[in-house]
UniProtKB/TrEMBL annotation:
Keyword flag Hydrolase: yes
Top-rank EC class of the record's enzyme: hydrolase
Keywords: Cell membrane, Elongation factor, GTP-binding, Hydrolase, Membrane, Nucleotide-binding, Protein biosynthesis
Protein family per UniProt: Belongs to the TRAFAC class translation factor GTPase superfamily. Classic translation factor GTPase family. LepA subfamily.
Name used for this protein in its record: Elongation factor 4
EC number: 3.6.5.n1
GO MF: translation elongation factor activity
Primary localisation category: membrane
Organism in which the protein naturally occurs: Citricoccus zhacaiensis
Annotated catalysed reactions: GTP + H2O = GDP + phosphate + H(+)
Gene (name only): lepA
Any Pfam family: EFG_C
Subcellular location: Cell membrane
HAMAP family: LepA
Length: 596
């Protein structure tokens, strides 16, 4: 295809602002999906995505569109909508020359959309601003047009008004894509270079890799090379999705499509990497490649210990489709055999856990998630801590924690409560801008550990649900951080150790000892539950002794009943965990970890 008739674009939108619905309508308007084949959210293939209404994996679709007698090929590249997948969003944007900025005309722009808009502007993408859902009675397009015009520096009249639901304005939008977005440019005679913007594992076909060709041409059956690793593969198939995969004779400058090499693991075909021809390789990679970096770690354990091999196989399978998922085996006194797993963020954690439970039929318990700390010991050696139990004993020089830049958009009446919340979470204010008279953008530099857990829920509840949040990892700072251990009769219960700021250590200790006191049954002797920082005890509870004799209920007589009771008691013991001398039912640990 001649690059002059290609247009590559993506849709930037907040969750629920109507991206999938609009994409569906475009597929219909361009005729690539027949009305009888249309099912809602055609492109959202995965069940979890469909149920949660979020898009995890991006995809590209090629659509024909004619304007003034010329036939164009529009490539729509779907971007993931959630903050945990920022790097994937950035690669999707890098594959495009333009972006549709889609904003719900009853809601206005939200923080994540704003962050992605800035990312698109930094990448010099042409921006097409669009107000969606204008059919809604509550839509207020004039008000939000002014806001968007102020942000991107256009006239409010230039902003298109559409409804993905009724189809109003969608054809004008497709015309605008052709007119406003530049055609791709690149050197057709240079050695081939294509950027990977997505990589998906398919049970039948192996890894399907989505690429945008920058220079040269990729042809079927040639040998290709991944520039980050130098690994070579044979191209078994190359083609475009429209939206079903269609093999083609190759992909040339500006084209977007998929390739299949028979590799079985997305780690061999990584988002951001450059594909070149092995015969005549390019010298320089396309910029912007990064390895995915897990930000949040948590221990995952099967509730039934005999499920451990199933969990291991399940993680091995999910890893094929998720280059950001890392894990290694871990054992815990309280929870048995499991894995320490690294995630991009909390949503990523939830998605993986849900898939493990749903697709592999596992019952899991996870330990409280933590971020990654760099601990410098007195002898200057540095330890990277992904698990509180690895926190070094003895004298410590300093502890560095990861930080985040957070952007919050709220109605101005909530500025006070947002600032109070951020300050309480050790944030430093970096700036504030009014988007309009009623809405502000507030920026904070804040510890990642404070933001990745309950922050968003607290923010929502303090702002009646109006606030939106975006964050990205941004450097680190040294802080007064300590490890709090929870001890049962002097023995540390590993799953409950936590790294917290000094000022929060006492509250954590009181909360955890109190909870365990309620959950652990009384024993034959008194059991102290303590919270400690090193050897210093900061909180304590006692479980009082009880003399439990199951046989005393039977008044001597019935032997078979006695035997039954004894057997029952033995069975109960199987699910008991020994912490030192103390017997604890595993349910107690699970309950302590799962509530709140
Ligand atoms: P996404 O999360 O951005 O992909 O949003 P969806 O396309 O899933 O839409 C979110 C919700 O908004 C769904 O309930 C849609 O039916 C609804 N919706 C999407 N577009 C429109 C529209 O133009 N008008 C109205 N009234 N509702 C819409
Ligand atoms: Mg969607």
């Amino acid at each position: 295809t001649d690059p002059a008739v290609i247009r590559n674009f993506c849709i930037i939108a907040h969750i629920d602002h109507g991206k999938s619905t609009l994409a569906d309508r475009m597929l219909q308007s361009t005729g690539v999906v027949q009305p009888r084949d249309m099912k809602a959210q055609y492109l959202d293939r995965m069940d979890i995505e469909r149920e949660r209404g979020i898009t995890i994996k991006s995809q590209a679709v090629r659509m024909p569109w004619s304007l003034n007698g010329t036939d164009f090929a529009l490539n729509m590249i779907d971007t993931p909508g959630h903050v945990d997948f920022t790097y994937e969003v950035s690669r999707s944007l890098a594959a495009c020359e333009g972006a549709i900025l889609l904003v719900d005309a009853a809601q206005g722009i939200e923080a994540q959309t704003l962050a992605n808009l800035y990312l698109a502007m930094e990448n010099d993408l042409a921006i097409i601003p669009v107000l969606n859902k204008i059919d809604l009675p509550s839509a207020d397009p004039d008000r939000y047009a002014a806001e968007i015009a102020g942000l991107i520096g256009c006239e409010p009249e230039d902003i298109l008004r559409v409804s993905g639901k009724t189809g109003v304005g969608v054809e004008e939008l497709l015309d605008r894509v052709v007119e406003a977005i530049p055609a791709p440019t690149g050197n057709p005679d240079a050695p081939a270079r294509a950027m990977i913007f997505d990589s998906v594992y398919d049970t039948y076909r192996g890894v399907v890799t989505y690429v945008r060709v920058v220079d040269g041409k990729l042809s079927p059956r040639e040998k290709i090379r991944m520039m980050s690793t130098g690994a070579t593969h044979e191209l078994l198939e190359i083609g475009v999705s429209s939206p079903e995969p269609k093999p083609s004779k190759g992909l040339s400058v500006g084209e977007v499509g998929y390739l299949i090499t028979g590799v079985k693991d997305v780690r061999q075909s990584k988002v951001g990497d450059t594909v070149t021809g092995a015969g005549n390789p390019a010298q320089e990679q396309i910029g912007g490649y990064e390895d995915p970096k897990p930000m949040v770690f948590s221990g995952l354990y099967p509730i039934d210990g005999s499920d451990y091999p199933v969990l291991r196989d399940a993680l091995d399978k999910l890893k094929l489709n998720d280059a950001a998922l890392v894990y290694e085996p871990e054992t815990s006194v309280a929870l048995g055999f499991g894995f320490r797993v690294g995630f991009l963020g909390l949503l990523h954690l939830e998605i993986i856990r849900e898939r493990l439970e749903r697709e592999f039929n596992l019952d899991l318990i996870s330990t409280a998630p933590n971020v990654v700390y760099e601990v410098t010991k007195e002898d200057k050696t540095v330890v990277t801590v992904t698990n509180p139990s690895e926190f070094p004993e003895g004298k410590i020089n300093e502890v560095a924690e990861p930080m985040a830049s957070a952007t919050i958009i709220v109605p101005s009446e909530f500025i006070g409560s947002v600032m109070e919340l951020c300050q309480g979470k050790r944030g430093q204010m970096k700036g504030m801008d009014y988007l309009s008279e009623e809405r502000v953008e507030i920026r904070y530099w804040i510890p990642l550990a404070e933001i990745v857990f309950d922050f968003f829920d607290l923010l929502k509840s303090r702002t009646k649900g109006y606030a939106s949040l975006d964050w990205k990892a941004d450097g680190e700072q040294t802080s007064d951080l300590v490890k709090v251990d929870i001890l049962l009769q002097g023995e540390t219960v590993d799953a409950f150790s936590s790294i917290t700021h000094k000022d929060n250590a006492y509250a954590y200790g009181v909360m955890m000892t109190g909870k365990l006191k309620e959950l652990i049954p009384r024993q034959q002797y008194e059991v102290p539950i303590q919270a400690a920082i090193g050897s210093r005890i900061i909180a304590r509870e006692n479980i009082r002794a009880i003399r439990k004799d199951v046989l005393s209920k039977c008044y001597g007589g019935d032997i078979s009943r006695k035997r039954k009771l004894l057997e029952k008691q033995k069975e109960g013991k199987k699910r008991m965990k020994m912490v030192g001398r103390v017997e604890v039912p595993q349910e107690a640990f699970i309950a302590a970890l799962s509530s709140d």
